[in-house]
Amino acid sequence: MIITKTPFRVSFFGGGTDYPEYFRKHGGAVLGTAIDKFAYHSVTRFYSRLFDYSVRISYRQVECVKSVEEIQHAPFRECLKWCGISGEIEVNYAAELPSFSGLGSSSSFVVGLLNALYAYQGKNIPPLELARQAIELEREVLKETVGCQDQVLAAVGGFNVVEFRPDGEIVVRPLPLRPERIRQLEEHLLMVFTGLHRRASDTAARQVQRIGENGPLLRRMREMVEEAAGILMDSDGLSRFGNLLHEAWMLKRQLDSSVSNGAIDRLYREGMEAGALGGKLLGAGGGGFLLFFVPPERREKVKSRLSHLEEVKVKLNAPGSHVIHHSP
Which residue of the set 150, 234, 236, 256 is catalytic? Predict the structure, then answer.
């Protein structure tokens, strides 16, 4: 049996510049981190001669089929085909947080499943290559309109600036932050679930169609990546990071009308009125988790104002996808 553990992510700055439709012309970058909330995949051999099916997969549903081609869950089906597996296998999936919530769960699913299937085959794929394969599988095989940051952060882990260069090269620059600096940032973050689920690829497709007209916005959002990294590397206070988050969210809302809505705007306004310095909706937009940057002394006031929403506490700088159990 193989079991893999793959992190979800929080993206702070640069989202939108990680689409090939943009960075192939202008270059892009994001500042993001893997978090301590994970997706798990287990893979084991299945003795099909004892049953009337050859493949068993389990997620929110259970599928028992005679061939991989019969699998209804497209990412499961295509990942198995990608790795050349046709049967005699059981795969199970579990996650600590729900899908369609802005934390890169779809890409974490693909990265973690590929990692587990390769480990099952006795192969060790380097993290960045694993990310590249997940990007190709999601974009070219599954035909999803996705960026490229989620796969990288899920595979590599850590707290990074990830550059996407026009020639297609992906460069990961880990931020050498001291543990106390990361802890200080964690103390300023408040993440709450809006209760709104959405498919990121639907919102992303609309944004990609407007990349040309959104050029000035995206250039400014790319600049913020370096500014924010500089703030974190300084020893000064973090209030500028919060202010920059607010500016970035105001810009992101202009990318397309689907990024936000009346309910999200109201929640964001309530958080700001209660004392937050900034924040953003995680992911492409439309729903999922809201992340606020709140000075610790104002935290309880903001939590009280948003008490009807579920808070999820996270730790930053989590490790990338890795095997946690391997038995013959």
Answer: 150
